[in-house]
């Protein structure tokens, strides 16, 4: 059978990205992972987020937080129109990067070690494989983000129906912000899973990378604080603690950091992919 | 334009030189065999041709392009040794993905997947996952994926290793049938198989290209290989040696003899041999014009 004209890199990247999502949604193993993820978030929503958001609404709690952390340390937290979304934002800021490490740990490791990439690389370029898998894992994480944000919107609306629209609009901003935050984590895992033989090994490398980097930065900080100040921005997630006290469009102030990190990591990953043996 | 061109191609893994200055030029046509002992560098050469590995030095081109280049996508395919399909996805899902990556629509890719699976007799397991297939079926599925679309060059690394005789024959017949449109390069340890399939044989040893043998040369070769079923071996050697024009008769194996003769000095040697068999009531198993591949490569 005659094949049509060789499709471009972008088209094949999208085919591979969609296939990654399909693997999650139409595969028993993928569905079990999705179910486990939903269950964890259901528990987080029902207990910490629901109870914390009711605290957040009380004046006593606001005064307590101001007394402990200072007047302007987390004052933005109280400006959220939907309290549930404020608590979700804090939880998601730290939990989603953590999930990202696990979810995107097998972008390449298994396929590379069992040689499955050899079947793909004769049909599409290595760039398509690299960016296709990366995009696919971003799509998977987007799906997880949308599911949890929608659940938070439903939680808020169940308390007060008038919060539905504000929750949806702030949910959309939260989604975009978290999506940007996850980009460098997924790009970092792309590199690590290219190097590792299994997803578990890639996860261990990730833990080692962040732990060792934190120790090195701490050591540099004790000797050359100004240099450490600069180096800390290299690490994905460096801006997270500062993002707690932001909301809505204000959170986009920090977007350039993960975007630049992701661009650099993707460039490095692409170079590694093109040079590595399959 | 030559199909494959390697110039001073070398590949080393650390301090181990797996391929040492290999220079070959191969053209499209009949299947080409690649033989050599374990660790000779056959799989490394295949991996370099497919672009899985980058050469340490030297150059390699396929249809004038570097392996792995965009121009070759879909034109070169392979059965890589030890590579397995994704165990979590059924065959047709994976084959449809391969087809769409080669530019087919989803529907056409699925049809193409079913077509190539039927070529290797696996139509009925298209919905099964690779892990539920036997080793032989898995191998046939991997061969099938190499035939998706319209490749011009197919590299098969040990295609019949681990297959039962019936299925090995199916693969051989398939290669034979498709070799008018596709040039196959086959690596195998089964010399009888290669003799039946290939015209040109490349011999690799310790990373170096030892020799290149043409099966076609058999027709002009001044050798005849006779395999006997029953005969007095000493008498066979004596009587055949005494035929005018026969230079030597060597017993190669238990019942196999290699006769070297001068074509200009002997008339209808085969007829004389048959007369000899008849007179002595000897029975033969096979007569081969020329030498067996094993004999050509290893003697």
UniProtKB/TrEMBL annotation, chain B:
<dbReference type="InterPro" id="IPR027417">
    <property type="entry name" value="P-loop_NTPase"/>
</dbReference>
<keyword id="KW-0813">Transport</keyword>
<dbReference type="GO" id="GO:0005524">
    <property type="term" value="F:ATP binding"/>
</dbReference>
<dbReference type="InterPro" id="IPR051782">
    <property type="entry name" value="ABC_Transporter_VariousFunc"/>
</dbReference>
<dbReference type="Pfam" id="PF00005">
    <property type="entry name" value="ABC_tran"/>
</dbReference>
<dbReference type="InterPro" id="IPR003439">
    <property type="entry name" value="ABC_transporter-like_ATP-bd"/>
</dbReference>
<protein>
    <submittedName>
        <fullName>ABC transporter ATP-binding protein</fullName>
    </submittedName>
</protein>
<keyword id="KW-0547">Nucleotide-binding</keyword>
<keyword id="KW-0067">ATP-binding</keyword>
<feature type="domain" description="ABC transporter">
    <location>
        <begin position="4"/>
        <end position="231"/>
    </location>
</feature>
<dbReference type="InterPro" id="IPR003593">
    <property type="entry name" value="AAA+_ATPase"/>
</dbReference>
